[in-house]
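Researcher: Structure prediction, please.
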Amino acid sequence: MSFCRGWGMREVLVKTEEFKDSPVGRIPKDWSCLTINDCLREGIIIDVQDGNHGEAHPKTDDFVTEGIPFVMAKDLVNGQINIADCHKITWHQYQSLRIGFAHPRDILLSHKGTIGLTAIVPNSLPDVMLTPQVTYYRVAEGKQLLGKFLFWFFQSPLFQHKLQILSAQSTRSYIGITLQKTLLILIPHIDEQKNIAEILDTVDEAIARTSSLITKLKQTKAGLLQDLLTRGLDEDGKLRDPEAHPEQFKDLALGRIPQKWTVKEFGEYIAHLDSGWSPICEAEPVANGEWGVLKTTAVVWSGYNPSESKKLPSNLEPRYSAVVETDDILITRKGPRERVGVVVHIPSTPANLMMPDTVFRVRLKESSPLLPAFIPLTLGSIAVQQDWNRKKVGLAEAQVDINYGIVRETIIYIPPKSEQKYIIQILNTYDTRIRTEEAYLNKLKLQKQGLMQDLLTGKVRLNSIK
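Model: Predicted structure follows.
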């Protein structure tokens, strides 16, 4: 099995056929299969406890800005406690409570509402209070079980599947302490636990680094986009500086823009503006040139995604007027507020795909000074999006819309075509890098799932890590 780039780790996976039967299937002969109750009786796990129920449970009015973290299921994010968004209670109230006092290195497991989320209490949080949604598991560290291994085992497909089975037996998503204690865990030798945890930690660190890099790239692109759409590029391909070269700019009612730019209503350059058709379609996506209708999710800020489509039923005739083509501009026109006003350019598209009724299509006049690929940039600018957001109408945040007039009357800044082209090229470089990193991130996540499936069940055994 190959490991991901930059780890500097030799291959450490070794297959073996020395297995035995257990309540969860075939496991290595030198592994134990114990219930949480077994672990408590043998002192492997010291304590299992959730937060305060009933009258003792802190209420909304009790929360303060600074204080002791009051951890709910939603606060367990990517194996950590999300302290920034976590509710807090006072030290006085914390001391008045009876149970739910989590300690550093405790393993947390959500058992109510959202089932199966995990985290480890860090050493930096000496005092943590749990809600009745979360259970702590306190391990007798190093006796037979490592807390870090238990943390990973709780995330294994085997354990998560059992949690879902148990939670489905109730009318609400809930697995009480008594039922949790019947859950089975697999326990390898302590050295193998260390090796398993080290490998999975390494994958997780790579995932975190890649996620952080993607976030930084997107932030950098967003900042650069704002500069490009207000300052533009000079003849040397550098951002214009209004302080150093004020002569390169002109002042208009809407603000200062480069001298060679123009300001117009978008409608002046629109040849056709229409919407599509939303028949009841089959759930399966379109394949092999079949007729289909795009979903609204085909229009996202990261670009046009024709795979987000639904197959047209055989008893319906296609509407040729709704078929999308290369260089069409699509704009989501109704739906949840945050999804309305998303703009994409279609650089290419499979045949026989029609736009839905929830989307506008723009086709530019042949005489337009605008490049089709530039439209999502200028309509995606902070100024335009804020303007559209003010003009969206609807009875609820989940269902708003924009109309034809709003799109046509939108004021846009228009650089010369040569400058538009250069701006597009620069931003495409960022998009390519972001897509590359996102593909790598998906690969890491798949590898992590495969490793958890193999390592945490003993299907693949570990030798040693150098």
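Model: Confidence is low (pLDDT under 50) at residues 1-11.
Researcher: Thanks, that helps.
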